[in-house]
Amino acid sequence: MTTRPSVLVTRRLAPGVSERLAPYADLTVHDDDQVMPREQLLSAVRGRTAVITTLGDRVDEEFLAAAGDSLRIVANHAVGTHNIDVAACERRGVLVSNTPGVLTEATADFTWALLLGAARRVGEGERVVRSGRPWAWAPDFMLGMELSGATLGILGLGSIGRAVARRAEGFGMRVRYHNRTPLPAGQTHGAEWRPLAQLLAESSVLVVSCPLTEQTRALIDAQRLALLPQGAVVVSITAGVVDEAALAAALASGHLLGAAVDNHAAEPAVHPELLVQERALLSPHLGSATVQTRQAMGQLAVDNVITVLTGRLPVSPVGPVPQDWNHA
Length: 328
Description:
This protein is of the alpha/beta class. It is built from 11 helices and 12 strands. It has helices spanning 38-44, 61-67, 86-91, 104-119, 122-131, 159-168, 196-202, 222-225, 244-252, 272-275, 291-309; strands at 6-9, 26-29, 50-53, 73-76, 95-97, 151-155, 174-178, 192-193, 205-208, 232-236, 256-261, 280-282. Strands 8-7-6-9-10-11-12 form a 7-stranded parallel sheet, sandwiched between helices. Helix 3 links the parallel strand 4 (73-76) and strand 5. Helix 1 (38-44) packs parallel to helix 2 (61-67) and helix 4 crosses helix 6.
C-alpha cells in the first residue's frame, strides 16, 4: 500500500486555506496564532512530506534531521527566507518555496502609512491626545516634515521598493535608490541610482526594504545614519538591516526627525531603546496584514505544496532544485 503524504502547517492560516490540502495528504494544523514551541515543532515535523512554515519557524539542520528523509518541501508563508537554511535544504534534497509578489502592494501601502506617520508625528500626536495632557494648537506645535518636493531614498529597489517609488510620484518627491547593481531605467519608476553614501546624504526620507543577508545585516549603522541630513526620517520594513540601537541613538540626539519600524530584529521583542523614543513609530509586523493579502499568501503556500505532492515543481521555488530531488 502507498503511504499517504503527511503535511504540517505550523500556524493558523487565513480561513479556508489549509483545508485545501486535505484531499492530498493527512493534515495537521497548529491551530494557534503563535509560533510553535521549538521542541513541539521538532516532534511534529517527524515523518512529514511537507511543512508550511512562517518566519518564526527556524528551519536548520536540527529541523531537517528531525523531519527525516520523507520531507520533500518546506513552503514558507513569507517572501523572506532568512529563517530557512536554504543550502542545508538543498543538500538534503528538500525544496524550499516562498510567497513573492502577492504582498507587494499591501506592503508598499503600509510603508507609506509608516512614512507619513513618522514624517508628520502621528503616533506621537495620538499619544498626546490619549494621555489627557492639556494641548492646544500653536504655530510651533508638533511640526513635522512636508513630503512634497523632498527626496525619498530607497535602499533595495525590488518589487516592494518599486511599488513605494511609484506611490511617491503622487507626492511630487524626487526618488533615489541603491541596489548593488543599477536597474534598467525603464524599471525604476523614475528613481535614479546612487552609491550608498550618496543616497544617504541626499535622502530626506530613507526607506529600507532590501532583503536581510549576511552582507546587509546592520548595514545602516551609526556611521551611515550620520550621513543622513539633519531632520531626516527613516522607515525600516526589513528586520536586521538597520542597527536598532543606533537608530534609537540618532532619534535621541535629534539628528533624525522620526523613524518607523515594522519588522523588528528580535521580534516579537522590540528594542528597549526604541520603545522610549517618542518619535519612533513602532508597528507589529503589519506590512502584509490585509485580508486579501493573507489569503493570497496562504493560497500560494498551499499551491506550492500541492504541486510537489502531485509530482511537479513548486510555483515559487527558492534556490536551485536539488539534483537528487525525487518527483515521486
